[in-house]
Design brief:
- The protein is an all-alpha fold.
- The chain has one domain (4-207).
- It has eight helices and no strands.
- The two termini are 19 Å apart.
- The model has no long low-confidence stretch (mean pLDDT 90).
Length: 208
């Protein structure tokens, strides 16, 4: 019989290693579609969401008790982070992959950022977590995209859109104007919430 606690510890250690290795690789050698060397890659939600997942894994591991249970805070953070990398996965599979090609989207460090880490993180919540997540925790999943969206739009309002290659609207969210950009961020938050809802429902079914 599988020891779920030991398996989950191993999974979280692997997540930290994958994210750290991918980020260091991209920072030192990043190039190509949606990759950037240097600390400039920190502007991408993909990178930030994966770093959030690694931080959540580190917090979870640091709070493991003798009975194999972590604090509610650590479990909630893991759930929020999984929804965030789930947004990254969904965006790549539904939008960026068809636009730029899946080979470009899954090349180098982005193979982990865009696919492996999100899939592992979501699978961990669905198959290994014993928590039954609440509606309130589901609502908390929109915090990362909300904070990112506020910082993204705030930067443009302060510094302007700019010119390529130094555009502040690097995702081209405002190509159709501010109302459309705000609507895009609203859809992003909704998709993240729905990913959280799906994970919550599946964990409820598994824990019955």
């Amino acid at each position: 019989m599988i020891d779920k606690n030991r398996t989950r510890k191993t999974v979280n250690i692997c997540i930290i290693i994958m994210v750290a290795g991918s980020w260091i690789t991209m920072t030192l050698f990043g190039k190509g579609t949606l990759s950037q060397n240097g600390f400039g890659n920190m502007k991408y939600f993909t990178v930030l969401s994966n770093l959030l997942e690694a931080i959540a894994s580190a917090v979870w591991l640091s709070e493991i008790r003798k009975n194999g249970k972590a604090s509610e805070y650590a479990e909630t953070l893991k759930y929020i982070a999984a929804a965030s990398v789930g947004l990254t996965l969904t965006t790549v599979m539904v939008f960026l992959g068809p636009l730029y090609g899946y080979i470009a989207m899954l090349k180098g460090a982005n193979l982990f950022f865009h696919l492996i880490t999100p899939v592992v993180s979501i699978a961990e919540i669905i198959f290994l977590s014993d928590r039954t997540y609440t509606k309130w925790e589901n609502n908390l999943t929109v915090i990362p995209p909300l904070v990112y969206g506020a910082a993204y739009l705030g930067n443009i309002l302060i510094n302007g859109i700019g010119e390529w290659p130094d555009r502040n609207d690097w995702y081209s969210f405002l190509i159709w104007g501010y109302p459309a950009g705000i609507m895009i961020f609203a859809v992003i938050c909704l998709v993240t919430w729905l990913i959280g809802l799906l994970m919550r429902k599946l964990t409820m079914v598994r824990n019955r």
